[in-house]
Amino acid sequence: MRQKNKPIKAYILFGAILTFILILIASTVGRQELNGPQRFGLDVIGKGQYLNTRLTNTFSNIWLGYVNLVNVRKENQHLKDELDSFKKTNITYREAVATNVRLSKLLQLKDALPPPTLTAQIVGRDPSLWFRTIIIDRGSSEGVEKGMPVVTVEGVVGQILDASPNYSKVLLANDPNSAIDVLIQKNRVQGIVKGKGTGNYQLLYVLKNADVEKGDAIVTSGLGDIFPKGLPVGSVSHITRSKRGMFQKIEIEPAVDFPQLEYLIIIMREHSLAGEEFFK
Amino acid sequence: MPVIIFFILGIFLLVLQTSFLTSLPDWMGRPDPLFVLIVFVTVRLKPPSAPILLLLLGLIMDIFSGIFLGIYPIVYILLFFLLFSLTQRLFLYEAVHQIPLVLTCYLLVNGLLFSVATFLAPENALVWQWKKVLLQMFMLALMTLPLFSFFDSLDRWVTRKKATSFFQRAQQKNTFRN
Predict the structure, then answer these.
(1) Does the predicted model carry a pTM greater than 0.80?
(2) N or C: which end of chain B has fewer CB within 10 A?
(3) Distance, CA of B10 to chain centre
(4) Number of structural domains in chain B
(5) Quick one: A270 and A202 in the same domain?
């Protein structure tokens, strides 16, 4: 009896479900909105989809991350090499620009100075502690002679001490053995600038009653026909007026930054080789 | 042969310290490897090689440094005779002596250069700069041992002497044995 009732119940259940589905289908035909059970189904299945997608993505990312990691090192090294290469190129360009700026300034100065002039590059510096000389790449074959003034855009550098056919030795203005006739620009008071050997100059033979203040510009006087008149030499950095003596002790900050010198201009004499051959 | 080799080496060191080494920052001073070579030559080489080489290097130094010609050869020759007379009485060959020897010689040579330059142009008085001198001495102290080692190796190679370790104590005869 019990065994007979089982298939009947199953048929009834199957029929009920089928009826429910048919009613559901019939109720949705022609509509565009989901009904309640559909929304519920969407919610549940959507949640599953969401979890599955997250899970898949997570594993996928871990796998891809692992696979990519193998190549990242190589790529990183490659990028670093590339960056180094760009940095080097950048430094080269910056240096070229800086050189260009320096040479442009020198060219402007060259145009302003009385001709003839000659541009030179420093090739060596005095290794001793007591002397201030440099070696430049221009010599007597180009008309360089002893005593010729050497300048830069900033001001006076020194004068030629000796010359071989291709190179010359320059006595810097901050050497104690250098002496240059100068003027205090504002009041035309004359004096002599001598190197101190420490980097600064001292201005000698300026009387105590002369009006000198810190910051006053010092320029060449043009006396002695060595340096052209009006070239900047430096500015007054310290003044001492002692009770004894006739003169003031004046310290001058050089207009030129001696350790940074690279290119120089030699002011040639009219009768020099450069004047006759190179500048005609 | 050693004279030629060390002369070429001296020229190379001079070029190095007048060009590349002058571009170093101020706090590093002006490294003076040539001076270590001068002291090495004075101590290690025998007359007439040593004084000839010192005269040649002094003449070259005159060209590149200072304004008074002849000042360097005179100072180097004076240094040679002083050290030569000292090495006849004292043993100055070991590594432990090298740094004090070089530093003392540096102070002496610079004192002489300073004095001679002041004597030749008393109106252009130089200023003795202890700070710079001490910095130079410190740099020399750092350079002395490796440079002496290198010069020793070069000397052995040139003269084909038997190679010995740099820090090995020089072998002396046992004067009490016989």
Answers:
(1) no
(2) C
(3) 10
(4) 1
(5) yes
